[in-house]
Design the sequence.
């Protein structure tokens, strides 16, 4: 047994004797670790015990092991790491600036299982052969997704961190993801109550865009967010967030996204934000938006027009009585804008296109107008006249016309 393992064992014994909770009593556990490391260092100089090495590093490693997530904790603490994924015990990857790297971290199968169990402890969610998938939130807000055999050959773990590099549309402009003209247009559109669909591939920055758009909501508005797992961090004072719940061992108690959308409407919302629309909950969202409640959501899609097609197709999953003839005009009357986000091969994230959604449907196609598109690396106005966005106030429209944001 090496020095760190000995100290860790001693610390765990003292934690059990004192009845401490490492997650809740971090200051007490930290003091305990520092004392144990100091005492061991003195003993090792006088006996044949293995030497501990640098004290500060030993304290950090023992603290990570007993009160954090062990070998993964340095990656979680590293602000440059956006995502961590594990393809078995010996393959731990991270993403930095949108690009993947293989790390030097190695774990045994037992150690990986122990860390996953520790991560799930605070969430109350379970993982077993009858439920081989799990989504959960870590204490720092990171999103955990785990799949176990026999669905996979080896344990597969994904941890998506939420690093707040952008909290407003101005931040996106400063990073080059958005032009100042487009930012001004989106800010005015959201403030005036336009319904916005944010689209893009995985890791394209959809959630970040939704957070930044929400910063343009009026400070007195009450915002309801519904998600599978908490991800949104709306920078307003009157916000209530809800997340889905898995069924229990008796296969009861599940709360799907559709239920949350319906419950949110009973809570006096001024705005409704849906983290991601994937299935039949799109029908409930459209009904809510059609009743006059402003809202925003995200969807996976390859382009802005594909996103519009998808949001008009997903409601068909809600039941055989729902037809495309009903959905298309509903989508056209509900949605105002589609903001499409992209992550390129270099890991850069930016807005590729902003689409205005018209209220007319011709030959099964919703009328649209491209307001902004990326040309030569810049997001520029298309110059198209904004003829069908009645929610945009006259003052905002005139200001945007002067700035050249719209035709």
Sequence:
């Amino acid at each position: 047994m090496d020095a760190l393992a000995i100290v860790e064992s001693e610390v765990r014994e003292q934690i059990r004797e004192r009845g401490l909770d490492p997650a809740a009593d971090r200051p007490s556990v930290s003091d305990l670790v520092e004392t144990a490391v100091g005492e061991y260092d003195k003993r090792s100089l006088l006996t044949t015990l293995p030497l501990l090495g640098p004290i500060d590093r030993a304290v950090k490693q023992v603290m990570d092991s007993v009160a954090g997530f062990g070998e993964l904790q340095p990656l979680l603490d590293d602000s440059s790491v956006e995502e961590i994924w594990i393809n078995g015990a010996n393959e731990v990857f991270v993403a930095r600036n949108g690009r993947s790297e293989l790390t030097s971290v190695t774990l045994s199968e037992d150690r990986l299982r122990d860390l996953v169990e520790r991560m799930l402890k605070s969430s109350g969610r379970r993982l077993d052969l009858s439920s081989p998938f799990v989504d959960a939130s870590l204490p720092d807000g990171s999103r955990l997704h785990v799949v176990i055999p026999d669905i996979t050959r080896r344990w597969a773990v994904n941890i998506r961190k939420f690093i707040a590099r952008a909290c407003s549309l101005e931040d996106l402009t400063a990073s080059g993801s958005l032009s100042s003209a487009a930012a001004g247009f989106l800010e005015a559109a959201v403030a005036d109550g336009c319904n916005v669909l944010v689209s893009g591939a995985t890791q394209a920055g959809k959630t970040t865009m939704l957070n930044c758009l929400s910063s343009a909501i009026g400070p007195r508005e009450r915002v309801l967010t519904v998600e599978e797992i908490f991800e949104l961090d709306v920078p307003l004072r009157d916000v209530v967030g809800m997340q889905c719940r898995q069924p229990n061992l008796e296969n009861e108690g599940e709360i799907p996204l559709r239920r949350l959308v319906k419950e949110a409407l009973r809570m006096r919302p001024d705005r409704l934000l849906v983290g991601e629309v994937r299935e039949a909950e799109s029908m409930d969202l459209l009904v809510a938006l059609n009743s006059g409640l402003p809202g925003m959501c995200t969807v996976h899609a390859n382009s802005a027009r594909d996103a519009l097609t998808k949001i008009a197709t997903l409601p068909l999953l809600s039941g055989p009585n729902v037809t495309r003839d009903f959905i298309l005009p509903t989508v056209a009357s509900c949605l105002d804008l589609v903001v499409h986000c992209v992550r390129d091969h270099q890991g850069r994230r930016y807005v590729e296109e902003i689409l205005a959604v018209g209220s007319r449907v011709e030959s099964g196609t919703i009328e649209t107008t491209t307001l902004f598109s990326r040309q030569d690396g810049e997001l520029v106005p298309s110059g198209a006249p904004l003829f069908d966005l009645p929610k945009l106030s006259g003052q905002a429209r005139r200001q945007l016309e002067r700035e050249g944001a719209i035709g």
Residues 26-46 form the longest helix (21 residues).
